[in-house]
Amino acid sequence: MSNYCTLPLFVFALSVGSLNAAVAAQSSAEISAAIATPGLAIATVLHAEGAQVYECRAASDGNLAWRAREPIATLVFEGSTVGRHYAGPRWEYVDGSVVHAKLASSTPGASQDDIPWLRLDVVEQSGNGKLSGVTHVERVNTRGGVARGPCNEAGAFRSVPYSADYVFLRKG
After folding, report:
1. SS3 state of residue 131
2. Residue among 112, 92, 111 at smallest CA distance from 101
């Protein structure tokens, strides 16, 4: 039997003013050079609440280990659900605009239980809307999301709650 568990997605309400101020303060002082994207303009900042989904698979040494499979999260702006984040990784806004990105670089989260902060390069876009023209995404202010504990059955799943802020950047 699988260890798969489901996780309801909770919406976390934040005011955009305080969120943008927090991200702006961190962008100059605390965002590691490993993920910083200087010279780009912020298109939007969205808060995510959800889960990182892991699958128990064989590692290169043959031992079983938790491997990241996909994120599943609700995107929030000014206290309202405005989109979703899912495998790809992809971010989909309610206006139909979607970005698909690939990992460019990472730096550790604040604690061993926090998934890394990331810089992602957009590789594909669709739709016209809020995410149109976005060239990079930064994942910052992560909380949780790291799978811990034994992985004893190949094919088992584990969902680990996480939250993060996603900063969508474009030229100009």
Report:
1. coil
2. 92
Kindly report the number of other CB atoms within 10 A of residue 142's CB atom: 23
pLDDT digits (tens, 9 = 90+) for 77-116: 999 999 999 999 999 999 999 999 999 999 999 999 999 9
The answer for residues whose C-beta is within 8 angstroms of residue 14's C-beta and 6 or more apart is: 47, 76, 78, 79
The C-alpha atoms of residue 83 and residue 98 are separated, in whole angstroms, by 10
Give the count of beta carbons closer than 10 Å to the beta carbon of residue 5. 10
Q: H-helix or E-strand containing 22?
A: helix 16-29
Q: Residue 5 — φ and ψ, nearest 5°?
A: -135, 150
Q: Give pTM, 2 decimals.
A: 0.83
